[in-house]
Structure prediction request, 183 residues.
Amino acid sequence: MKIQKHLPVKSILFDFDGTLCDSQPAFTKWHTLARQHLAKVLNVDYETADAHFSRLWREGNHHYYVNPNKLIKHTIKGIKTEYPQLTDRNAKILKEILLNVYTEPVYLYPDAEEIINKLASYKIKIGIVTHASSQWTKKKMQWTKINKFLLAKHPYVVSMNELKDHLSWSSAADHYGIDKLHT
Prediction:
């Protein structure tokens, strides 16, 4: 990978999920299992379970994106409203399935470490920002070992560990990251 030494750049802000690490497989795996569980316990086909789950998840995502517990609660409440036959026991199992997303290790993309090391070697300040909850972000940073190879090694990297869960699906986290890079 070749990066010019004299980039007219002083700082770069990376989004964590989808840019530096791949968290999508965790969502795909556990959401598929959640849809399968719903189809079975509601006695509907997978496509019907998928349609209801996806719609409710998107609605909840709009309101509670960075708060997994509220998002899951919203989704399950909506399903129970549409399907009163969903028992409390099966709702609890659904919640447990969905919470597994946040226990599934994620990994850096293969070139992420090389790119960050190269940029940092040119003394370009690097920020990492996410719209995810701070609790899950800390786990992801441990799984990807980004704290060890990046934050401990390069004084030009700004940690976004202190992001607050109240940031919503908006540019608030990005603005926070930009402000942190310039302090």
User: Anything to note?
Assistant: DSSP finds eight helices and five strands in the chain. The helical segments are 24-42, 46-64, 68-82, 88-99, 112-121, 134-143, 146-151, 172-181. The mean pLDDT is 80.
